[in-house]
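Re-run requested by the PI after the first attempt was lost when the workstation crashed. Everything re-entered from the original request form. Ligand of interest: S-adenosylmethionine.
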Amino acid sequence: MPYLGYILRKIAQNPLHAAGSGWKNLAEYFLDRRIGVSTFRRDFRIMQSTGGDSKPCQPAPYSVMAAMADHMRASGCARKVFVDVGCGAGRPLAYFSSLGFERMVGIEINPAAAELARENLRRIKKSWDKSGGIEVLTTDILASGVDFTGAILYLANPFGRTTMRAFAERLKAQLLAHPEQEILVYYVLPLHVQALLEVFPKAERQSFEGADPWQFLRLSAAAATG
Ligand SMILES: C[S@@+](CC[C@H](N)C(=O)[O-])C[C@H]1O[C@@H](n2cnc3c(N)ncnc32)[C@H](O)[C@@H]1O
């Protein structure tokens, strides 16, 4: 239990500072254990990407993913393909596997993080994983040949404005080629949502505030700029 020791040491070193984040981390640790994974490692190198604006690997809390899972269930969206754009150590892939997606894909630029994600996915408890299969691709999102039409995309602040804008243009091209399809986006800490909206100004959008704000967007060819 390497990360339990780490968290307890932090609490012992600085109890006041650790009171907030330490207990939160401890709760996250036990939620990891419930699924069978270990997603705490954060010391991955930031990789140089095409857009030059990759963010470090930092998993979003389980609480925000639980709110998104409720939203997915309530909206009755098809559980076909789920893509974690910048999947880090694989926490969202592991968590959302309980929703029974036909196929799940993690795309991660950092080979070390991608390898840890694969290791985690091998360890998900069988009783938790209801998905049809999960794979992790080690690549820059802008270099991946993945077709995102019809998928649910999960983004936890993976990169900055430059990459987000280029990614949005790619989504638009794919949707124009398949105008009958949509792409649903769940975006935690949506700092660069404006770059998406410049390309999809008529996208349906819902915002959720709180300690970990997130947004839901429905992208389609009709919502894109002409
Ligand atoms: C904030 S972490 C989120 C990790 C994971 N989605 C989670 O919530 O636990 C962002 C991840 O995106 C990855 N990333 C950044 N830029 C990327 C790019 N251009 N292509 C693919 N992955 C990228 C980073 O390496 C990092 O692991």
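Saved to the shared folder this time. The mean pLDDT is 91.
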